[in-house]
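Supplementary Methods, section 5.1.

A reviewer requested that the exact input to the structure prediction be made available. We therefore reproduce it here, unchanged from the version used in the analyses.
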Amino acid sequence: MKKLFLFTLVMITILALGSFSNTKAQGTEPESGAVVCAPAVYLESPGDCLPLGPSIYLTDLAKLGLTLPARLLPSFKPDPTLTQLPYFYFRLEEDEVPIISGPGGESIGQSFLPGFVYVSYIDRVDTGHGIYYMLQSGGWIPGKGARVGEVSAYQGLQFKSTPRNAFAWPFEYIPVKRAPGYNTPETGQYLNPFIDIIQVYATQNVDGADWNMIGPDQWVEARKVATVMPNIVPPEGVTTGRWIDVDLAEQTLAVYDNYELVFATVIASGLEPFWTRPGLFQIYQKKETETMRNGDPTDFYYLDNVPWTMYFDKARALHGAYWRTRFGYPQSHGCVNLSVGDSHWLFNWAHEGDYVYIHDPSGLTPTDPALYHDWAY
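The structure derived from this sequence is encoded token-by-token as follows.
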């Protein structure tokens, strides 16, 4: 009986080994029997190991352009001296303001109408009975209004090469979520407007809103950031490697030179019903300073010494807006408003004849030419 038991045991062992050998020969060995690869990114099959566990997570992130640690943007800040202006500005109260012959003097028969009025001045005098400002024309105005104490020093970014993925500026103080959605937990991290610059790796629509993935388990609401999506393919109609791309939906501007992204920033475009018109245009005139005005008494504006102006669509222009302190949402009368430093950089780069591509991926900006006036700021 004992011999029979041993014989049976030996036969079972031989059959089991034969089955294992046959399975291995057919290449159907269960994965549990293979070597697991060291944690790393495997965009192609390594062949001699299984990329499981952490490798799957790291590879999925890499497919989105996200490495650990994150790859830095190939960018740097422009020259800060570009933000400097040789002018002092004063905003008039929304009342008719006479131009006078001197401090405490008589009207010379001219005045500024009530409206959106900024003048530049070269002297300021306090007589003890009132404050007066001397205009570049030699006339004076009573100090009814407020001085522009500080012009925004905000600047965009210059690039050494085109980034591999989208990037964005938050224009509000916003929390970072652990997952997309309004009711998801927060990470405890907050983004500071125009100070933090984030990279965008994916977008999901949750709770009726788009959410941007900015890192592993890090999400922000897309409508609260101004995003640039690099695209080195020229828009249809562009015949050179140089163009300016203005995204009305994102309120961003990107500059391409020799088919590479070289500059990007946040703008303020036209607010309804003074939209910035979509289309392909060319810069037809550059002016270092410009006085912009509208004679309509129901919507009067006068803007003295508007810096770094580049006209591309009738009176619509790219220019510095010293009266703006925030960018990232529509505010203008049709022009593309930039910070003083950004407009200075763009003015130095641009040539008359360069292309300006205005587009709205959301499709919300109307294109009917009848809706667009000849004047703007």
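The two ends are 106 Å apart (CA to CA). These observations are discussed further in the main text.
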